[in-house]
Amino acid sequence: MIDMRARLEYEAIAKFDEDGWWVGTVEGIAGVHSQAKSLEQLGPRLEEALAAAGVVGHVKVKPKLPTGIRSSVERAKESRKRAEEVAAAARQELLAAATALTGRIGMSVRDAGNLLEISYQRVHQIVSASAAKKAAMKSTANRKARAAARRR
Fold this sequence. Notes:
The protein is built from 4 helices and 4 strands. The protein is α+β, with helices and mostly antiparallel strands.
């Protein structure tokens, strides 16, 4: 019989073995382990092993890597996060510049593209998307204002 009072989430430690398999063991429950060729497959297999042990729950798989490799993975993830933040800031600056060039001073998209070192098509995409977003926000605000006026 399955124990329905069991914890809902369990943690499993997964190690990559010399044969190319991930071997996972659920912490705190003796005999609940499994293996899979990928981390993605390991979680469901461990949940099946949990069920076979009479416990219902979700398994969160935590890979255990050698220290040097673990550090390398963490540095790569941190670098990627910083790169994404820089890319987001660059997109905002590009939007501001393209909008200023084409909107405020009336420059052509071709000249704006030349100055920004991007294609004129990309400038058009940027300023069109910005205009569409502003129009949608204005439309939503107008709709909310009309709804509020009707309630009064």
